[in-house]
Amino acid sequence: MKKIFAFLLLAICFSFTACDSDEWGNGDPAMEHIYYFGFENWGQTTGDFNNNKVEYKVKQGETVKVPVQFHSERTRSYDVTVYYYISSADTLNIGRDYEIVDSSGTTLTPDADGGFKMEFPKAEKGVKDIYVKTLSSGKKGAFSLYTFNPTSGEISHPDNNTNSQTKDYEVRAFTRNYKVKVLVE
Predict the structure, then answer these.
(1) What is the pLDDT of residue 69?
(2) CA spacing 20 to 30 A to 49: which of 4, 22, 155, 174?
(3) pLDDT (0 to 100) of residue 159
(4) Per-residue model confidence (pLDDT) at position 23
(5) What pLDDT is stored for residue 19 in this prediction?
(6) Closest by CA position to 68, among listed 43, 100, 36, 40
(7) Residue 163 contacts residue 171 (beta carbons within 8 Å)
(8) Which stretches in the chain have pLDDT values below 70?
């Protein structure tokens, strides 16, 4: 009887503490205006999600779409701006070997920090595409797209995973699968 009582007491204690430290719980005011931005394709569905091995292959002279997703659960009165980046340590050069374009093929220009701007009106969740147009330079190689500025070092939470921030909101990059590789063949 004492063993049953001890087991029940232990089970009751665990039930009071199991979810007490859930910082991501619904209704947490600190998380009310924090959103997440990342690549739609996470690659693996099991195992090591932090492998960043998602690749998009494209032939020279063609365009490839790379989908990204914005996570939000509410409609707001403000628009949210996110950024995506290109690694500066790649074998191909933007403007000579490839361009980032919009859906109609117009070349996009990065800002002073190297970020390409993308808007999500009224902070509504959704999926949009990054368009990479390869040029007929004859050069094969690869480059990576990031959801955080790669010049800030390796991504880690909470140090440098902020994608954008204003007085109204903060957008964070996923700390898993935060980049994809584009292979030009």
Answers:
(1) 94
(2) 22
(3) 65
(4) 44
(5) 46
(6) 40
(7) yes
(8) 1-27, 42-52, 88-89, 157-160
Rama region for 153: left / alpha / beta (φ>0; ψ in -120 to 50; rest): left
Q: What are phi and psi of 10, to 5 degrees?
A: -65, -45
Instruction: Work out the number of other CB atoms within 10 angstroms of the CB of residue 45.
Output: 6
Tokens matching residue 166: 């204003």
Residue written as token pair 């070349």: 107
Sheet holding 179-184, edge to edge: 55-58, 179-184, 141-146, 80-86, 116-120
CA atoms of 99 and 84, how far apart (whole Å): 14
Closest by CA position to 54, among listed 178, 166, 150: 178
pLDDT in tens, 57-105: 999 999 999 999 999 988 999 999 999 999 866 789 899 999 999 999 9
The residue among 167, 157, 166 whose CA lies nearest residue 38 is 157
Decide if 98 contacts 133 (C-beta within 8 A): yes
Using DSSP's 3-state secondary structure scheme, residue 167 falls into coil
Residue 80 pairs in a beta bridge with: 120
1 alpha carbon, distance to own chain's centre: 54
